[in-house]
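dumping this here so i dont lose it
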């Protein structure tokens, strides 16, 4: 009988010893506190995330916790959609075409203003030269649309005008893309559809300045600009 009592006392007194176990530490702070590397030789492989949790390490407390995979997916999606290069603007009144000495022959830029942006950081656009500045090297999507007047003219416009994108790199201006307005010869009337869009991907460098405007525009009727509409968007899609 005494033997059984002694055994019970020893068992009860030993319980606190097993409440926290430390490896390479004399003062564990968790049920299992490992102060060192850990290796797992074999792990089963799963083919889908539903029903599983992901183990994550708290870099402050070094505790390992389970995390719902959807939390990581949501965080990654939010980070991917955060792009400081995104910018868009639309101009419906007060349109004029700017002619600067550095522009290629026949190109005149639309006088977009930072205040006319519909999306993006105002610091990316300069009212001084009406340009968007590329913030970092990479591939950018640019779309530019211009409707001249009401969008339909009663005659084919001279000089084959159209929309264009100019890149200024280290003081050298280059038309990197353009598209002319299209014309249609009808039986009784020649018409020009004076609305066009250029939209593509372009490899650009940090510091490049982008101007949006018209090519072959020297003979356009300035009076029709009052009814014109212009808009553009730009954002980085890849490094």
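and the seq i came up w/
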């Amino acid at each position: 009988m005494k033997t059984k009592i002694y055994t019970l006392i020893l068992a009860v007194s030993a319980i606190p010893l097993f409440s926290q176990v430390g490896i390479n530490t004399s003062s564990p702070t968790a049920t299992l506190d490992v102060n060192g590397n850990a290796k797992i030789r074999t792990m089963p492989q799963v083919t889908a995330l539903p029903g599983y949790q992901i183990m994550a390490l708290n870099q402050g407390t070094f505790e390992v916790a389970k995390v719902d995979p959807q939390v990581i997916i949501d965080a990654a999606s939010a980070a991917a959609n955060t792009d400081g290069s995104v910018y868009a603007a639309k101009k419906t009144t007060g349109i004029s075409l700017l002619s600067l000495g550095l522009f290629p022959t026949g190109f005149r830029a639309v006088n977009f203003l930072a205040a006319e942006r519909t999306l993006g950081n105002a610091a990316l656009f300069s009212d001084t030269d009406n340009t968007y500045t590329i913030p970092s090297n990479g591939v950018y999507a640019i779309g530019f649309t211009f409707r001249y007047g009401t969008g339909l003219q009663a005659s084919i416009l001279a000089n084959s005008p159209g929309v264009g994108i100019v890149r200024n790199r280290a003081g050298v201006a280059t038309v990197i893309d353009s598209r002319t307005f299209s014309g249609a010869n009808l039986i009784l009337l020649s018409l020009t559809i004076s609305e066009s869009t250029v939209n593509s991907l372009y490899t650009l460098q940090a510091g490049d300045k982008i101007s949006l405007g018209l090519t072959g525009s020297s003979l356009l009727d300035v009076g029709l600009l009052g009814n014109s509409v212009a808009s553009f968007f730009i954002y980085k899609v890849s490094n």
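The helical segments are 2-14, 69-80.
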